[in-house]
């Protein structure tokens, strides 16, 4: 999934016409020039589509908007029908749609955007589905560490996309990545359907010993989870504290992850092949950071140096304030390409501290409603996935250094402030609304109450007769 989503910005960067400044110097131009001995000033160097900032954002973020619209419904579908089949067929259908996207784009850009929205609606099943699998397959003490490995694999997909996108585009044009994505969906679908099951109880190939161990260490219940108590959830300050940090982390991730290829090609004047490799560096740093910080956080808590909530707060500060400082440094570097890439790489490395912080905090608050509350948090984060590129594209319509500096300063402010909410209201304790009472249990409880009531009435009647 991340390979597919991460390669799209590279394709979009190759689609769009760009103007490169030849000659000049930093002092008399608000752009980064390309050194040349000629007297040329501007020249169109690549791309075939010209879009305004809003259309460009919709092309980049259409899939994210679709996911935002579907998370809550998808979570409920996973709770009712299970994760395995829904996620598996989602990737298969998504692969077919990706193969058709170049044709849709040539018909009309908005047909491409609409199909992207549909693809996003389907992919909205994945994140809440994963949260449900974590609860049913992983022990509580192992969730943060193992989940960090799973989601770091997403970044590995991003790295593969960055390293291969330039070569694919150079060989087959901007259409190449779409066809490649469609082909990849087939082996993924086959492996998913063979390997993944909704719970240990439903897996036909694990040993009875392993199944018994998981059943004893995890409270596995294959019954359909009742509808989440949304009023209590949405008035829970610890839950909103968790969401606030996820929004801050999402803003920095989407700003760098989505806009970096455009920034490198439009402002720093890198070629598509150069951009594909350079764009991978921040993601490589984040991959290393995610695993390192998850292991460090687990080590610190296991040794008793910090308790869980204090550990969350410390790592969250690093994950949000650290990148904000890096964002403020970038505008001071002008057109120093190497320094800018280094600072953005450090920003993503610091951003990875979130995996040692409150990354899986929603499972602490409510394991029973993991799918639903993960879906709601992902819904809010998806708003960021749309708003961050939209704001950047609206500000940088002319792609000047001043415009991009505004993007960096704005991102710094929006990334650093939300963590304050978590410092005051964050919690790692199970919330009262996590308790589930199934209908059958409720009926049995009522029957027991009625039985006790009848026994009491009978005893009272017998006592009355005896007295007589």
From TrEMBL:
Topological category with respect to the lipid bilayer: Multi-pass membrane protein
Protein source organism: Timema podura (Walking stick)
Keyword Transmembrane: yes
Superkingdom of source: Eukaryota
Primary location class: membrane
Record-annotated Major facilitator superfamily (MFS) profile domain positions: 12-430
Alphabetical UniProt keywords: Membrane, Transmembrane, Transmembrane helix
Cross-referenced InterPro entries: MFS, MFS_dom, MFS_Na/Anion_cotransporter, MFS_trans_sf
Full protein name: Major facilitator superfamily (MFS) profile domain-containing protein
Sequence intervals crossing the membrane: 54-74, 86-104, 110-134, 146-172, 178-197, 239-257, 277-297, 309-332, 338-357, 369-395, 407-425
Localization annotation: Membrane
Listed Gene3D superfamilies: MFS general substrate transporter like domains
